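#onboarding

Welcome to the new folks! Below is a worked example of what a typical request in this channel looks like: someone posts a single protein sequence, and someone else replies with the predicted structure as tokens. Don't worry about understanding the tokens yet, we'll cover that in week two.

Example request:
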Amino acid sequence: MQVMAGAPVGGAEAFFERLVVGLQKRPIKQRVVLRSYDDRVRRLRNAGLEPTILKFGGFFDVSTRYKLERLVDQDRPQIVLTWMNRATAACPIPTPKRRFVFVARLGGYYNLKYYRRCDHLVANTHGIRRYLIEQGWAPDRVHYLPNFVDAPRASHEPAQSSEQGMRRIFAAGRLHENKGFDVLIRALSLIDDAYLEIAGVGPLERSLRALAEEVGVADRVRWLGWVETPVDHCQAAEVFVCASRHEPLGNVIVEAWAAGCPVVATSAQGPTELISDGVDGRLVPIDDHVGLAEAIKEVLSQQSFAQAIAAAGRRRFLESFTEEAVVDQYMRFFEEITP
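Example response:
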């Protein structure tokens, strides 16, 4: 049983869908419990699943807790895998009469008060796993299992790589302070021959648009909103940029690698773990728009360097972040933790 009480869109939510669909192709029976978001429900139904819908209204939502408990008692799953705080808090406690292995998957440096009842924790980066162990969790109960991303669609034809002679920069993420889009917009003001596509929604959209006007690049920023397949936009771009101040993983870096797109990123937790500077991407200091601009210009102006780091990133994707490789790891993990 997999339980997700997340938002309509988001990185964890997108990977949840990919993993559920990937596991559906394997010899495993799963029930998927989630909130009633029409697009997510439709996509899972198209993959052959029939999700169970619960409200997940928060601490005082007694009905969801009761219904989830009834589902566990009815299905008697060997494993219950919860995603993030709310779903984990709503999960019933294993008892001698209600036996299952309680696993929670974490994609960030969360407050661990919600996870005390879990038997095992899954971290999607080595850094998060180290954090969990530092917080007192036994190493044999904390497991690193990476995310995977979809490869670009074979039929996808990249758009023209220029717009009135300008180079294409792509970035994606929630429009939040942690993602550093303000730094990227300031960096764009130092790059004369490029425009920026930003895929994402969030609370800072209005202020970021105002900043683009303030620094004189509003006519060179394209606001795409939430996109379902960032990998296709990466394939059409000449450089992908992650300007985050705080980034536990950075799924879209892996998506850029999958698309064969060179990556420039700040030295946040996730990018630093993923990228070897100058080998499969470029790393720059956090909150340094001048350094970010210089790194972007380096990639745009040095074709052989851009091709080399893009090719190395593509190899990293094929080695470690494909659906087959990661679902294999999850299947082995499930076998290890069940009697």
